[in-house]
Amino acid sequence: MKVKPTYKEIKKKINVNVFPYEVYVVLTTDVNEARKRRNKIFGETSLDHAIAMHSSLHTGFSYLFLPYNCTPWVLCHEVFHTVWEIMHFIGAELENEVMAYLMSFLMKEINKFGSTWK
Ligand SMILES: [Zn+2]
Q1: From ligand 1's centre to the CA of 78, what distance in Å?
Q2: For residue range 23-72, what is the model confidence (pLDDT) as tens digits?
Q3: Which pTM was predicted?
């Protein structure tokens, strides 16, 4: 796929302090292009029409590829995948309050970051 001249992204790394885990948030005009630009990390993908995406290799980090105008419900969906991945990575039981805390922490951090989009 040809890169659109209007392609733009901003990226932020969120450390999930109490857990050994990093979340990279990529806000972009083109989710599929952003993911393809990380083929060296994740390998080739056949996905071409995703509206948002969570990617991980189960090695202590996740990438969230989000449209810059991401809706709260899509963001929530992708953040849940991240929380799920974190819980499995650290070998924790799926504990209600810990997962809810992580959800709100990540939603808040991503929301702050999203407001920097210009
Ligand atoms: Zn999903």
Answers
A1: 6
A2: 999 999 999 999 999 999 999 988 889 999 999 999 999 999 999 999 99
A3: 0.89
Residue 3 domain-assigned? no
57 alpha carbon – ligand 1 mean position (Å):
15
- Cα of 83 to ligand 1 centre, how many Å? 12
Between the CA of 101 and the centroid of ligand 1 the distance, in Å, is 20
Count the domains in the chain.
1
How far does residue 36's CA lie from ligand 1's centre (Å)?
18
- Domain of 50, in residue numbers: 9-114
Tell me whether residue 68 is in a domain.
yes
Cβ neighbourhood burial of 42 (10 Å; 0-12, 13-18, 19+):
middle
Where do we find the tokens 């991503």?
110
